Structures are given as C-alpha cells and as structure tokens.
Amino acid sequence: xxxxxxxxxxxxxxxxxxxxxxxxxxxxxxxxxxxxxxxxxxxxxxxxxxxxxxxxxxxxxxxxxxxxxxxxxxxxxxxxxxxxxxxxxxxxxxxxxxxxxxxxxxxxxxxxxxxxxxxxxxxxxxxxxxxxxxxxxxxxxxxxxxxxxxxxxxxxxxxxxxxxxxxxxxxxxxxxxxxxxxxxxxxxxxxxxxxxxxxxxxxxxxxxxxxxxxxxxxxxxxxxxxxxxxxxxxxxxxxxxxxxxxxxxxxxxxxxxxxxxxxxxxxxxxxxxxxxxxxxxxxxxxxxxxxxxxxxxxxxxxxxxxxxxxxxxxxxxxxxxxxxxxxxxxxxxxxxxxxxxxxxx
Length: 345
Ligand code: PHE
Known about the structure:
This protein is an alpha+beta fold. It is built from twelve helices and ten strands. A seven-stranded mixed sheet has the order 1-5-6-10-9-8-7. Strands 2-4-3 form a three-stranded antiparallel sheet. Helix 5 (110-124) packs across helix 10 (314-322). Bound molecules: phenylalanine (PHE). Phenylalanine (PHE) binds next to strand 9 and strand 10.
C-alpha cells in the first residue's frame, strides 16, 4: 500500500507548499496534511494492522513523510512572514516629503510684555527688584505706612480681610516698609512689581485683582526733582519721546507732599480728545516724597534721609499703550486677543 500513497501525499504537499503565497495558505496546508484527521496521521493508527514485515518500515516512512512536510512548511512559512513584514513596512513607510503638523504658539500676554518693559526701564536706572507677600498684615499694609486704625484713608482702599489683622494687600506699598526694615538705614533704590487686591470692580477699567509697580528711593539729599526726573524718563521710554508729564497735588498718608502724575495724552498729544476727556492729560500714577513718619517708623532718620515713592498700575499702562478698552480682556487669555500681541520670531 502505503509507500506509493505516502509518496503521493508528500509530492502533493510539497507542490502545494511551493505554490503557497500567504500565511493563510500555510495554515490550510498544515491542516490538510498534519491535523489528526488527515490521511497521513490516520495512517499511524493503521500500522498495527499490517503484517510484521511491512510494519517495520511503515512507522519510519510515515514519520519521515510527516517530518518532510513539517519542515517544508516551516521554511516556507518563514519566507512568507518575512515577505509579509517587509510589505507591511513598505506600505507604512514615513513620507518625509509631507509637511509637518502645525503647532500653534500663543502670544505673551500684554500684561507681561508691559510689566517686563517697565521693569527693564527701572533696572536701567539702577533700581533693584524686590518682592513681598500678597497676604499681608495690617502692620505693613497700613500702620507702618502712616495709616493708623480708624484713619479715614483706609476707606480709599476697600480691603479684603482674612481676619481683623490679615488681609490681601491693597497696594504694593507694604514692600516699602519691608525693604526699609531690611536695609536698616542703608540707601534704597528699589521697585516691586506685584499683585494687589481691592473690592472695587465696578467698571471696565477696574478689577478686584490688579497689579502695581512700587518704586522707592531713599538716600541723603533726595528731593522732588529726582521724583519728577525719574518719572519723566519712565514716561518717555514707555510712551514715546514726545511725552511730557505734569504733577498735580494729591494726598496719600505715606507721602508728603503727594502727587498724581499725568502724561500728555498719547492719542492727541495734548490738544484734547475723547481719550483724555478733552483735558490733554492722562493720569498714570501716584507718588510723592516719603513721609517723615514712615521713614522714622521704618528705621531712617528723617533729618538725615529723604526719599520718594510711587505706585504705577501695570494694567492701566498696558491698556493705554495698546488701546485695550476692558481690563478683563487681559485676564481671560482668549487666544484671539493674545495673538494680537504675538511677536514674530
Ligand atoms: N499705594 C498708592 C496706591 O495704591 C500709590 C502710591 C505709592 C502713592 C507710593 C504714593 C507713593 O494708590
């Protein structure tokens, strides 16, 4: 029987293997020739029925056929899977000629552009940059600035209290007191940019949180001319060479005399327009000569030392510089707004 049939099976298997092209073909061939129910495998169970003479070789022959088919399948299978992998890689090849994906980059918030510019201007004049806490005590925010309890000037700054003695600072001026106490009688030339909090958010130019840059100079022989020259230089660098400033008399408990500083209108140059409400001037900051009580309370002898201080609203400067009509636009970070301040890289 069997030997000729075995040969036929082997030839049949080998020729099908040779023709196979996919791993699916291989699986089918393996099933047809090597599964338990296949003709070849069922031959093993027939060995017992053969005569002793035939039986001797039959086992070996069937087994050899099985091995030959198994081996041929493995070789072909490897060949096919390598080819399939290569085809897959080819079809997934990265096309380096495709344009890359666009990453959209926002712009620096105008608040930070202006804060950095303002800081740079004062650094250029030899000021150092100080920092201070936003959660302050009554002592620094008011007392050491010559605003005792029950003083009506406290009403000027509607305050967020945390407890009767702790509050969100209403201005950056407490950093004046902190710096004087730290410098212990040494000359001072500092600015402090930082956040401040007040309960006045009743129109589009005010917010319960805003930011100021505080300035403080303390030394021997400092006079109001130094204040004026410093702020004039600042105004020209910030708003253009043509700017003039004007000092108007004002009141702050921690400065004497106190001034409000106006710049000539950046829109009409002083003739009078909507922006300056016809006056030709725009108010940009408050300042004055450091009050002798403040010097004294913070460790400086007012007979020997004098100084000037000022506080500038950062958002106000940004709004003037860029013509922003609503302070909230600065805080909401709408990309349509931010993109307008994007610098070309
Ligand atoms: N702290 C004042 C305010 O917030 C501004 C100011 C600072 C005035 C320094 C005089 C000197 O209104």
